[in-house]
Fold:
Amino acid sequence: MSEKKATSAKFYVHDLDLFYGSFQALKKINFQIAANRITALIGPSGCGKSTFLKTLNRMNDFVEGCKITGDVQLDGRDIYTSGMSEIELRQRVGMVFQQPNPFPKTIYDNVAYGPRIRGVHRKSELDEIVETSLREVGIWDEFKDRLNKSALGLSGGQQQRLCIARTIAVHPEVILMDEPTSALDPISTMKIEDLAVEMKEKYTIVIVTHNMQQANRISDTTAFFLLGELIESGPTQDIFLNPQNKKTEEYITGRFG
Amino acid sequence: MYSKGKEKTWKFFVLLCGLLMIALPIAIGIFLAVKGNALFYQYHHTLGEFLFTTTWKLKDDLVGGGKGGAAVFIVGSLIVCGLALLIAVPFSLAAAIFMTEIAPKWGTKILRPAVEIFVGIPSVVYGWIGMTVLVPFLQNVFHLKTGRSVLAGGIVLAVMIFPSITTVAADAIRAVPVSARMAAYGLGATRWQVTHQIVMPAAQTSVLTGVILGLARAFGEALAVAMVIGKTPAFPKGIFGQTATMTTVIASRMAELMEGSEAKAGLWTIAFILYLISLFFIFLIHIIAAKGAKKNK
Amino acid sequence: MTEVKNEKKARVEVSQSLIRRARAVDNIWTVVFYLVALFFLLLLFAFAGYVIIKGFTGAKPEMFRFDRNGVGNYFFNTVYLVFLSLLISVPIGVMGGIYMAEYAKDNAFTKFLRIAIETLSSLPSIVVGLFGYLIFLVATKSQPNLLVGAICVAILSLPLMTTTTEDALRSLPPSYKLGSMGMGATLRQTIQSVLIPACVPRIITGVILAAGRGFGEAAALLYTTGSDTNIKWNPAAWVNPSLNPFNPLRRGGTLSLKIWTSFTASVGAEDVANLSSAILMIMVLSFSILAHYLEGRIKKKMGDTK
Structure:
C-alpha cells in the first residue's frame, strides 16, 4: 500500500497553458508530481516555476487577467473544472510563501487559524494542534512560553517555521513552498531544509528554489523550467549528474541564470 | 547668488511659519481659557455646577447671579454624536471594505472619488437639506409634532462624518500587507473570513483613529446640527426628542449677548470645553497609535 | 491502513459542509457590501442632484442679480473671502511645509509641532471663528469684516496646506536635492529653484481643495464677517468704503451665511437659500472634481517616470 502510494501521482498536469493577458507564461506543461516526495522546481527568474506552483492551489486566481487551459488533476479530479471549490483545494493543498507572512496575531492564533476556519473551536483540541504543529517544525520548546506574543516580533527564520507550522496544522495533503528560504540566513535555511526532508513522510512537497544545491540536497524529483516551458524533469540525481537537455546542463553548471 | 543675509532671512521666515503652527492652537486655547474663566472667577460659579447641573439661566448683564449648568449641552453633544457614530461606523466600514477587498478597481475609480466629494459638501448645505427634507420626512413618517430631533441631528452628522471615517478606514485596510491576506487564502479561507478575521483586526488601530477623527468632527459641527435639532435646552425625551448641544447653544446665542456679561462668559466656557475635547481626541489618537505599535512588537 | 483512510475521508467530508456554509456567508456579505456601496453612490447623486435642481427650479431671475435682493453679491463675497484667505494661508502653509520637510529635526520639538498641526486641523471651525472674533474684533473694537473672516478660514486651511507641501516635498526623488546641492547650491536655493517648482502641481491641488472647503465655511464666519452685504458696483458709491466690493475691511456675508440666516429668518427666504445651496454645491463639486483630476494626472505622471 505505502509502496503504491509512493509511486502514484498526486498531481497530474496535462497540456497546461497559462496566460497573463496576452502574455503566455506557461506553455504546454505536462508533468506529474509524486505523493510523499519532494519535487523541486528550478529555473532562472521569470521562467514560470512560481507561476506553475501557484496554479496547483489556484493562487493565480488573484492575478487579474490570468487564464488557464489544460488539465490539472489532484487525485484524479480536475481542480479547475470538476466543481471542486478553490476553498476546498486550498484546504488540501497548503502553501508556504517566499516572504514569511505571519498574521499580525499571536503565535498561538497563527497556528490555530486554519483549524478554526475548519470548525475546530474546542480549546483543548486547539491546544493540542498548536503543540503538535509547533513540535513538528521543531520550535515548540522555543515558543511554548510565549504563545501569546505577537508573531511579528519573531526573527525571519522563526517566522518562516511558524508559517510552516501554520500550514501543517490543518494536515494538508500537499505543501507548496515558494522559495521558502530565499529571505533567510544560512542556518535558518538549513533548519527548514531538514524539516522539509522530515515532512515528506506525511506530505507531498513541491518546492520552488533558486538554489540548486538546495534542490540537489533535498528533492527526489527535479523539474527545470525555462521561458515558460518545462524543459526536463526526472529523478534529481539524474538531472544533476546526467542532464539530457543542453539548456538544463548549462543552467545547472551555472552558465546562465 | 550666495549671500549670508539672504540665507538667514529665509531660514528665519521658514522657522517663523513653523512656530506659527504651534503658536496658533496654544493662543486659541489661552484666549478661550481666559474668557471662559470669567464664569468661575468673576461670576463665582463652580465647575461642579457647570458640569453637573442642568439649569442654564445666566444673566445677560455684568452683575450675574444666574444659573450655569451646562450638563444638558454636554449630554446633548454626547448623545447626538454617539448616535451619529452608531449610524455612520457600520456604513463606513462596509464602504471601506468594498473599496479595498471586494471591488478595488471599481471602488478606487468611482466610490472613492464620490466619498471624497462628500467630504467637501458644506455643512450648512447638509443642515439646510436636513431641515427642509429630512425633518419634514421624519415628521410625516413617525407622526411627530416636529421632525426636529436628536435623530435628525444624528442622521445629518452621520452623513457628514461618513466620508472621513471611510477614507481613513480604507487607507488603513489597504495598508494591511497583501501577504497576510494571501496566507489566509492559502489556508482555504473565504474572502469574508480573510476580511473579518485577518484584515480588520490588523487594521483595527488605524480604523479606530478614523472613527475618533469622525467623532471629533461631529463634536465640533455647529450649524448643521443647530438647523435640525431644535433649541430646547433640556435632556431629550428619546431619539425623537429635542435638545441642545455645546455647539448649537454657541451658534444660536452668542450674537445676542452683551460682551462681558455672565451669559456670554458661560458660552466662552463652553467654547473652551470644546477646545479641550479636541485636544483630548488628538491625545486619544496618539495613545491608541502607541498602544497599537507596542502590541506588534 | 484502511482505517486511517476512512478517517481521512471523513475529515474531508466534514469540511465540505463547512466550506458550503462559509461560502454562503461569504456570498451574503459580498451582497451586503455591494448594496452599501450602491446606496452611497445613489445617495450622493440624489443629494447633489436634488440640491442643484431644487435650487435652480425655484429661482426667480432677479435672484441672480448682483444687488440687494440677488445672491450675486454673496457669491462675490464667497469667492473674494476665499481668495483673501488663500493669500494668507498659502505662503504660510507652504513655508510651514518646507520647515517640516527640510528643516525639522527628528526631535521632541518637531513631535510637538506635529501634534500642534493635528490639533489645529481638528479644532471645530466655530471655535476658530470665536478666536478670530475675540482677538480681531472684540480686542480691537472693530466691526465684523471680510478680512477677519478670511483670517479664520486661513487658520482652518493652514494644516492642509502645510501637510500637502510637506508630503509633496517628501515624495520628490532624493536625486533632485542631491543634484542641486552637489552643484554648490545652498539649501535655500535648492528649495526655491528646484524642489518647490517640482511640487507646484501638488500644491495647486492642495490650494484647490482648501478653496473648495473655504467656499462652504460658515461657522467660522458667523461672528466675524457679518451675515449681510450691501456692496455697490457703481464706483461713484465707493466714497463710502463700506460699499466698495474690493475693500476687505467691510462687512460681507457669504453664500453659506445666507443659508444659515434663512434658517432663522421668516418664511420666504427659502428659495434664496435653495439657490445659494445649489450654487455652493456646484462650486464645491467642480473644485473637488478638479482637484481629483489633477491628483490623478500627477499620479499618472509619477508612474510614467518610474
In short: Chain C touches chain B through 86 residues (CB under 8 Å). Chain C has two domains: 1-57, 61-305. The radius of gyration of chain C is 27 Å.
